[in-house]
């Protein structure tokens, strides 16, 4: 059990970590538990990451960052939750698919004392490789159902619509 007390005049000069009193539990939850708490608050339709941040007096970017940790693979979340991977490193892998996440984390686990810049040098090419492997999409396909009533025409004309290359509207005949 650690207990650090300072005279009131020393509080301003003391680092924030030294002022915190440790009674066997951390003053802050782990990043994954914190993210789960934020996600639970977002079930209230009046809550947004910005409103949560205002209430807690933290940045909205922190709230969004913590929430994005929940998109990681469960085993990677476990590493973050138990302090084996700092959140800043984990955030560099958000958006990677499972294969590329595992490659990044294996690189981290294999290296001893990898800096954030070194880890970024690992994850940036993985992001680029993943983007290059994905086909370009110009639009998101959607299902559209059209009924004869929507077309405002006589059902007998439907057979006449079919032309070369698909359906032809009556005005195009």
Question: Can you tell me about this structure?
Answer:
This protein has 173 residues and is mainly alpha-helical. It is built from 10 helices and 2 strands. The chain has 2 domains: 1-70, no CATH class; 83-134. It has helices spanning 16-19, 31-41, 49-56, 60-69, 74-81, 87-91, 98-110, 116-133, 148-151, 158-161; strands at residues 162-163, 166-167. A two-stranded antiparallel sheet has the order 1-2. Strand 1 and strand 2 form a beta hairpin. The longest helix has 18 residues, at 116-133. The N and C termini lie far apart (86 Å).
Helix content: 40-55%
Strand order of the largest sheet: 1-2
Number of strands: 2
What are the segments in which pLDDT stays under 50 over at least 5 consecutive residues? 1-24, 160-169
Largest sheet: 2 strands, antiparallel
Nearest-integer average pLDDT: 77
Integer-rounded radius of gyration: 27 Å
List keywords for this structure.
single chain, 173 residues, mainly alpha, 2 domains, two-stranded antiparallel sheet, 10 helices, 2 strands, globular, disordered N terminus
Indicate the topology.
Layout: H1 16-19, H2 31-41, H3 49-56, H4 60-69, H5 74-81, H6 87-91, H7 98-110, H8 116-133, H9 148-151, H10 158-161, E1 162-163, E2 166-167
Antiparallel strand pairs: 1-2
Helix pairs in contact: 2-4, 3-4, 7-8
